[in-house]
Amino acid sequence: MDNRARILPGTLDLLILKAVSLGPLHGYGVLLRIGQISKGALAIEQGALYPALFRLVGQDLLKATWGISDNNQRAKFYELTAAGRKRLRQEIEGWDRLVAAIGTVLSTQQEEI
Amino acid sequence: MKTLARIRAFTHFLFRRSEVEGEMEEEFRSHLRRRAQDLERQGLSREEAERQARVEFGGYQSYKEECREALGTRLLGEFIADVRFGLRQLRRNPGFTIVAVLTLALGVGANTAVFSLVDEVWLRPRPVPHPERVVRIFTSNPSSGGEISRAGSSYLDYYYISRGSQSFSGVACFQMRGGLLDTHGESKLVDVAVVSDNFFDVLAASAAAGHILTAAEAGAPGTLTVMLSHPFWDDQFHADGGLPGKPVILNGRHVVVAGVLPRGFRGTDPTVTPNIWIPLSTWGVLTGERPTPESGSSNPFDLFGSLRPGVPLPQANAELAVIAARLAREHPQTNAGGRMMCLRESQVQGEGLRGFSLILLAISGLVLLVACANVASLLIARADLRRHEFVMRAALGAGRRRLLRQLLTEAGLLGAAATAGALLIGIWADAVLPKVLPQIDLGAATPIDAHMTARVLWFSLGAGLLSVFAFGGVPATQGSAHSLAGALNQQGRGVTARASVRSVLVVAQVAISLVLVVAGGLLVRSLMNAEAADPGFDAHQNMLVLDFAADFRTDQAYRAFVGEARRGIESIPGVLGTAVAMRIPFGLSGAGATLQVFVAGATGRAATVGIAVHLDHVSDNFFEMMGTPILRGRAIDPHDLQTDAHVMVINRTMAGRFWPSEDAIGQYVRLQKPDGPRYEVIGIAEDCKNADYVEAPMPYLYTPMGLGDYGELEMVVKTATDPSSVASQVRRTLLSLDPGLTMVYFNTLREHVRMAIANERISAELVAALGALGLLLAAVGLYGLTSYLVGSRTQEIGIRMALGATRSSILRLVTFRSLALTSLGLAIGLAVAFGVASLLRALLFGVAPHNVFVFAIAVAVLALVTGAASFVPVLRATRVSPTEALHHE
User: Fold this and answer.
1) Of B24, B35, B63, which to mutate for an interface test with A (greatest number of A Cβ within 10 Å)?
2) What is the DSSP string of B403-471?
3) Average pLDDT, whole number, for chain B?
């Protein structure tokens, strides 16, 4: 195994939303951006991206449209909807709270109890 | 254009499954391609890069499946959510839901009922192995003057065709008669189809019970066998499967029921299904009637043929022409210049009823249209009330497509409920229709056997579905078009735009209703004319009409019986007089039998073949009892009967046609043959209606009731008061004279005559009922629209009143619109009704299609009803209190 972190269950959606929030992307682009942001620290099986994308479209968080990519090929682009933007904000807040809480727990020293 | 695009988007969404699959494949492939290109750039070989990309991607098919699932659960989930939400919405508004479902159910139900009728009489092919090969053969007959006629063919024609033709695998003949069936000691007159022995070989497929009678079996000496119709078997024998093989008593003889014909097996008239089918061999034994080629031109039969496989119709017709020519050569006295032809059964089936069925279908279609317009209007109003909800949902991110789908789901739910209701109405109508349709008042006659078939079911579902799109489409596109901007601009253009769509609907409703009311009015007027028409006798007097049958062995017995019966009945207190005849007007036998008549000085066919004239044999007192005026000369008297005098009374039409320039009284006429018995014309009677009210005057002659085989007699009994008060005494008197006497028919004259206009009554009632339904729906529509308009202007009205506007000025303000809409609808409706009325011409009796009176009444009725419908909400508007109105929002 390599030393890349496995993605926590449920966080893939958050990563996708975040990636797409920076601009419309096609599926492979989402993957590249997640890799780029995380500097290759996160490992996903590439195909797993698609069911997640379809689910997010189904929840009206993402919108999918067919367009032409930079290398002049037809591609399906994903972008955030208003609902998606709102969800991302909530998720980030939730994540921050969780991280803060867990961080607090983990950094607690003996004498503080 | 925009609406169209929306509908396309929706159907695209529903039906693009395969497209979704293709897109998914494309998306996955382009991922692999890009990844491979990146890996290649990192230095891998092409094959290595492609392999690596696939490995990294993981389970290609399983991910595809997961995507499909995500998509599917989404669609299914949304659908379930839509349905659930729709049901909740409909439950929340029970008033709206009930009105909408009921309106639609009535609209679709009316169509289902009418279509099941059309299906029965017209569309459903005969239940035979090759219905497409069945043809009807028509010939000319002496009274049609060499023209092909639908009136029937002689046995001679049948004999020549069945012997001489190669085109048909079989030729069969058919004739409607009456018979007496004994059940539980009671005699019933039944409709009998007398058919050639081979009839079922040619036309029947399989028996519903028992077996199908073959020609060999029917013709075998010593056995009397018959077939039963399915509906008669149901009604009379409770579909007893053990009946075939057992005997029933017909015309006093035991005959064996061989089997039961399949449902829908009919003769030539779709409104009459014979009860019992009797092969000619059996009929000959029962009645002594055995038609032969020599029996000449009487005995009209309908002829059926079954084309041999591969024989085209023109070939069969060419052969028939040759046969007709040979027949004319060999029997010039009856068939000179005769012609023959055949038509496919599908062309002939239900011929007489096609026009009427189409009119009924069109009218019920119009009712459905009104119903759809109504529900569409209701939905628009409701969508408007729910505007807030839609705007909220749009703001929360629901796409327009989603909202559109939501509205269409609700429409679909309404449509499903309505179609279910419509099927119930259709089933109910099928049970009720046979009871209201014209039928002979004997209980044994079987009318139209309309029932639900797969075709009827599909028709209803189609009509239901079509209405869902018709009424659901407009409001759905309107409802989903709400925008955030529209919400901010609450009282803005939205109301007017939606009101204008509803206005168009109301105009259409008023117009269609006018057409319906005009059609109904014309037919009702026609019925009233028929009821008021002078039948040539006193149809409103107190009189009993009876028909009885007895077996009189000798002429003396017959005379003695009739004399005693009349004397006995005339001695009953309250009886004013009696008369006896072979037939009375509007009897079962139509206009009655015809006889060839020869007049001195006639030339051509009239001299060789004679002229067919309807005739009746009557007793003394007949014209006096019936109230038919004798215009000149005298009526038949007791002396004529005693001496069997060769005298006759003719009607006015016959006198005018046979002796246009001479006095008919004292003229001589020969009957049956050029050298037949000679009768003297002694009187001229007023024309009577004979078969029905709408018939044209026809020549008619009356001879004294003489000797001969009188198995069945008609008697009229004139009474001082209500005829039913002496009915039981009359019956007792007759039975005391002859306990074996069979009462075939017993009725009052008024009822008897009422039956004669059953056709006019039914078409008038059906169309008037449909018209009333349409009118009611239009009134509901107008009421709804006016209420809506007034409601949306409450605030404005309040302000106007606060500023000093009077009630009447408010009244003017709000009435103007409904008045304008109604007037426009009436104008359009008038134009359409004017065209439609001409199509009704064939059904009308004594009323022109463009009868001003009927049109005026229809307009007045519509104006009144629509006025009333909009008056209530308008009245409410004038009662608006300014303070309340200003607090309205």
Assistant:
1) B63
2) HHHHHHHHHHHHHHHHHHHHHHHHHHHHHHHHHHS---TTS--B-------HHHHHHHHHHHHHHHHHH
3) 79
